[in-house]
């Protein structure tokens, strides 16, 4: 690079941004409306939102980890105790949903094992297949043949009838 650089060819940018000079004495209406909006609408809303966030930070609530207390079974409810009937029904529905998810998870595990193992799936996934058979049988024993409109009372009656049949079979086998 030559010693005598031509400053006209390589102009240096200004060190400071030039200030725009006003040509009028009337204030900018956009700036006025922005200021009014910030003080009248944005500031109170921001204050309320931050206050709510502070309150929620004190009381953390994780809805996806909600734990319900176990309520008495329908067989333990007193006659005419409709609140107990309702709670038992809600508990039964939650239990049914949990059991459905358990069956679905075991089924997905078996499917993943079959996909992973390929041709060797019968020998390498036998444990998962047996677990799926056990879980499905337990689900079928408890909730099978109840249909869409099944409830805690019909499920309890089904269990009662199954127990009576098992006792009858034991009595016939012992004779």
Automatic annotation (TrEMBL):
GO CC, alphabetical: mitochondrial inner membrane; respiratory chain complex I
Membrane topology according to the record: Peripheral membrane protein
Location of region: Disordered: 1-23
UniProt keyword terms in alphabetical order: Electron transport, Membrane, Mitochondrion, Mitochondrion inner membrane, Respiratory chain, Transport
Main location: mitochondrion
Pfam families to which the protein is assigned, alphabetical: NDUFB10
Places the protein is found: Mitochondrion inner membrane
InterPro entries hit by this protein: NADH_UbQ_OxRdtase_su10 (IPR019377), NDUFB10 (IPR039993)
Function, in words: Accessory subunit that is involved in the functional assembly of the mitochondrial respiratory chain complex I. Complex I has an NADH dehydrogenase activity with ubiquinone as an immediate electron acceptor and mediates the transfer of electrons from NADH to the respiratory chain.
Family membership: Belongs to the complex I NDUFB10 subunit family.
Name of the protein: NADH dehydrogenase [ubiquinone] 1 beta subcomplex subunit 10
Organism: Rissa tridactyla
UniProt lineage: Eukaryota, Metazoa, Chordata, Craniata, Vertebrata
Gene designation: Ndufb10
């Amino acid at each position: 690079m030559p010693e005598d650089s031509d400053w006209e060819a390589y102009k240096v940018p200004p060190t400071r941004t030039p200030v725009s000079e006003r040509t009028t004495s009337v204030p900018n209406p956009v700036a006025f409306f922005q200021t009014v909006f910030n003080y009248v609408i944005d500031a109170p809303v921001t204050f309320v939102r931050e206050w709510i966030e502070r309150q929620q930070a004190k009381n953390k609530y994780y809805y996806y980890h909600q734990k319900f207390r176990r309520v008495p079974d329908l067989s333990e409810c007193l006659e005419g105790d409709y609140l107990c009937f309702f709670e038992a029904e809600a508990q039964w529905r939650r239990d049914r949903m949990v059991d459905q998810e358990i069956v679905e998870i075991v089924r997905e595990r078996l499917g993943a094992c079959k996909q992973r193992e390929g041709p060797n799936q019968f020998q390498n996934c036998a444990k998962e297949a047996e677990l799926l058979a056990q879980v499905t049988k337990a689900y079928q024993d408890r909730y099978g043949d109840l249909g869409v409109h099944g409830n805690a009372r019909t499920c309890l009656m089904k269990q009662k009838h199954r127990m009576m049949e098992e006792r009858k079979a034991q009595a016939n086998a012992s004779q």
